[in-house]
Amino acid sequence: MADVFISGSGVFTPPHVITNDELVASFNAYVELFNAENAEGIAAGEIEAKAPSSSDFIVAASGIEQRYVMDKEGTLDPARMCPRYAPRADDEPSLMAEMGCAAAKDALAQAGVDSSDVDLVIVAASNMERAYPAMAVEIQQLLDAGGFAFDMNVACSSATFGIQAAADMIRGGSATRALVISPEVTSGHLEWRDRDCHFIFGDVATAVLLEAGDIAQNPQFKVLSTACATQFSNNIRNNFGFLRRAHDQMDDRRDMQFMQNGRKVFKEVLPLVSKHIKSHLDRDGVVAEDLSRLWLHQANKSMNDYIGKKVLGREPEAGEQPNILQDYANTSSAGSIIAFAKHSDDLAAGDKGLICSFGAGYSVGSVIVERV
């Protein structure tokens, strides 16, 4: 079976930044409008008044200081509180495809590979812009790539699941070069009017290029092994879908956006992820001391700190477990790949690292790589 290498990675960063202070000012203005418009119901105890947010609360709860978004004006409009995108004609590139292509071109340039030599494109993301045709097939066409393409959604674990799928196909001979692309327009499914989560997400797109060892001209990391696992849970959920109108649910409902039971997620996901990583390492005869870097899912700083300590058996040293949360916020499946792309160049040949993402499902995926 063919060896598989990661030869390039790319990150597309959206043009607009929203700082915590900007976000809080917008949210608190919305809260004032809501409470004023519903003053009578609030006074009667029929409606619960909304509480303001604060930058200190956001940093303490998550470690996030800012986020990038594709649209800032609509997101910060207290009377709207969601992004505004102009509709595109069917013959125009879609937003996700445009973002994904930008990240893919960076990964291809880093690897010194022409897009026409790619024979597999996987778009692995937490939400797709449409049901069909597949975003991956559109990107395949825009890049002039060959072979075949498909979408996959395993929520925040999508990128690592996509890497496993691509690596398996390369090892099995059904592909030779694969792009795993994660365009995340998380601002579209975030409920910006909810104090408990309005700060969590940001937009981004990432891409990694995987190649068979016998054709890789500029390999960076050998994919030593992968491991994926799922366990059903309702604690992170989004009920928006194509059956919504059939259920007479076209009204504005809270469960049609991102929802989570944060306390249960923290309590249940952390042991699940820590156990998964340990099992993966044990299976492959890798010990914690062998790992020079952990590129973890960027959901919450406290979660990453906990997992890093569990995996390494000690507090991670500076640089061992890089966080990009403070700049990008939670970018769903793309977070661990941003960390990998921005914090891997300094590793020496033979150094090993682990990419891990986890989230709704529950799902968790891990990839052990070695610098070449």
Strand count, sense and closure of the main sheet? Answer: 9 strands, mixed
Oligomeric organization of the protein chains: single chain
Mean residue pLDDT: 95
Uncertain spans: none
> What structural class is derived from the secondary structure elements?
alpha+beta
Strand portion? 15-25%
Shape by Cα distribution: globular
Q: What is the N-to-C order of secondary-structure elements (H for helix, E for strand)? A: EEHHHEHHEHEHEEEEEHEHHHEE
Amount of helix = 25-40%
Distance linking N and C termini: 19 Å
Strand segment tally = 13
Task: Describe this structure as you would to a colleague.
- Helix 5 (95-111) crosses helix 6 (135-143).
- The chain contains eleven helices and 13 strands.
- The two termini are 19 Å apart.
- Helix 6 links the parallel strand 4 (120-124) and strand 5 (148-152).
- The protein is α+β, with helices and mostly antiparallel strands and 372 residues long.
- The strands form three sheets. A nine-stranded mixed sheet has the order 5-4-6-7-1-8-13-12-11, with helices on both faces.
Q: In a few lines, what is going on in this structure?
A:
It is built from 11 helices and 13 strands.
What are the salient characteristics of this protein?
22% strand; two-stranded antiparallel sheet; single chain; 372 residues; 9-stranded mixed β-sheet; 11 helices; 33% helix; alpha+beta
